[in-house]
# Entry
Amino acid sequence: MSHVEPIITFEGSEAARRAACLATDVNHRMSATTGRRPNTQNVGELAAGVAHDLNNFLQVIGNSLELLDRHENQHPAARRLNGVALQALARATKLSRQLLTLSRGHELQLEVLCLDDLQTSMGDIIQRALPDNVRLEIRHAQNLWPCTADSCLLEAALLNLAINARDAMPDGGTLTIDVVNRAVDDAHAAAAGIRKGDFVVASVGDTGSGMEPSIVARAFEPFFTTKDFGKGSGLGLSQVQAFAKRCNGYATIVSEPGRGTRVLIYLPRAD
# Structure
């Protein structure tokens, strides 16, 4: 057993270090594009390059996790944590492949989903991304409608929003994920600048500092971020919006200074 551990330690730490460098490298690649707001082709090429590099790192991390999983004397708690990591790795690998597909202009894998099991499917993963001073609440309405979306990218979007919410609460707070049915009528659609119809709305909210209206107005722009250099690529919210639109839905933000932020993803009701 001892001869395996140094290999795992080296490869795992090196993969993690390079993955962290890759995140920073996104900003350097972005700087090479024309202006501060790259066009769709620039973003597609960037996505393809990042996804290709990320696949290499995920493969090394996966090999290390599989070696750990084979240890016969592994503590039950460690085995459970390793299982959670392997599940997250599988989602990340699938997402990376779909990112490559999207960069080449292919369609999403749309399917009919029911979102009343988010606590079971995502609760553990999101909880482990949160510090002890952030409480997680996942709630859903009764008799949820089925909706149409890509399940893998929906999970990635919710995790992305959860991490944003966590970062907005450095002193702690409550992160809530709510899923409700919502019928958008003509009046509401006109007031909000959206289309009418029946939607399942998944929202992620925090009790953080909130955002000024000028920040909210730009929040969905690719590469726009208020975080320090190297701490955020500015792609998170733009990817959430792009995902929602490709599912024939949309995303909105509700935020006020001192009153937190809530991002809502509207997914169309399935027939």
Summary: Residues 1-16, 30-38, 229-234 have pLDDT under 50 and may be disordered. Residues 29 and 40 are 14 Å apart (CA to CA). The radius of gyration is 20 Å.
